Amino acid sequence: MSYDDNNVFAKIMRGELPSEQVYEDDMTLALMDIMPRSDGHVLVIPKDPARTILDATPEQLDACIRTVQKLSRAVMKAFDADGVTLTQANEAAGGQEVFHLHFHVLPRHEGVKLRKPASGMEKPEVLKANADRIRAALANG
Fold first, then answer.
1. In a domain, 129, yes or no
2. Is 2 a member of any domain?
3. Is 17 left (phi over 0), alpha (psi -120 to 50) or beta?
4. Residue 12 has pLDDT above 90, yes or no
5. Is 102 a known active-site residue?
6. Cβ of 136: how many Cβ atoms within 10 Å?
7. Is residue 26 part of a domain?
8. What is the tens place of the pLDDT at every residue in 104-117?
9. Residue 59 lies in a domain
10. CA distance 47 to 87
């Protein structure tokens, strides 16, 4: 399968769609999931095209995992979480819905279940408030 330049993440990176971004470096971007399964649910993507983990370069994977770790620490601090769940799916049979490599970072609390996938769009003001908490956690190390 080839990379589709019109996927939602490609459009976000070109500025064609809005997003609430929380972190960016030379190779990665982290943004709030608009249908979060937990408060503080963040997505980490490589900036360069990669459809799945199977066709990503080692450099893209290294950069993504470094950002995933950074964001995992930040969401745990920002949301006083007890843990973090990471998910990553490849191809439709694996559960992938947007065909640009992405990692989900979900802060977790004991006894609190994740919301169902695609269970509803979050209000932009809530996404911004949650993003502000994560940005503050990143700034304060």
1. yes
2. no
3. beta
4. yes
5. yes
6. 12
7. yes
8. 999 999 999 999 98
9. yes
10. 19
